[in-house]
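Morning run. Coffee first, then this:
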Amino acid sequence: MELAGKTALVTGGSRGIGRAIAKMLAARGAHVVINYNGSQEQAERTRTEIQAAGGSASLFQCSVADPEAVEEMIKQVAAEYKRLDILVNNAGITRDNLILKMTEKEFDEVLDTNLKGVFHTCKHAAKQMLRQKSGSIVNISSISGIMGNAGQTNYAASKAGVIGLTKSLARELASREIRVNAVAPGFIETEMTEKLPESAVEAGKAQIPFRRFGTVEEVAKVVCFLASEDASYLTGQVIQADGGMGM
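And here it is:
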C-alpha cells in the first residue's frame, strides 16, 4: 500500500467528504487521525469502520477555529506518531444568506472555521513537516471559491481564500519538499445536498456536463493522489473535482 507507515490528519473527518477521505487514506495504509468538533458518534463510527476493514485510526476532538486547541492537537499527533506526513483540511461550515440579510456573525463564523482554521492547522503542521523535510498538505476548497454562488458570499470568500493560502504556502514550503495543493469539489452527494429540494438538484445537474453530482469517493481519490508520492511534482495546484461545472 502506497501510504503504509504514513500518518495523516483529516479535519472534519467524521462525515461526508472528510469521512470518505479518512477511510480511503486508511485503506491505502496510512494511520488516520480523525479530527471532529461536534460529531463524536459519527467520528467513532468512521473509526470503527476503518478498523473493521483492517485499517488504523484514532480520534481527536477540537474546533479548528480554536488556535490553541489546534496547536495542542498537532503537538499530540507528532508526539505519539513521531511524524505527520499528510494533512487534509476538510473542516468547514455554511451559514448561507443573501448579503443584505447576512449578519456579521454569520460571515465571521464561516471565515473563522473555513479559512482561519486552515491557517491554524497549516501553521502548526508545517513546523513538524519542516523538521521532517517532507509532507503533503491538501486543502479542500470549493467550486464556489472559483465561480462564486448567490447566497454564499461568506462561504465563497472563505474558499477563495483557501486557494490563495494554498498557492502562497506552496511557494514557502517547496524548498523543503513539502507539497501544498487544493481540491475544489462541485456538487457532491452528501447529507447537505440530500436536503436540497428536487428543483435545486435538477438545476444543479443542468450546470454539470456529466449531468450528475459527484460522489464523496470520487473526491477522496483525488485527495489520496495528491497526498501520495504519485503527485511528487505537483504543488500549488487546484484540482476542480466538479464534473466540468467550472471549466
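The chain has ten helices and seven strands. Good start to the day.
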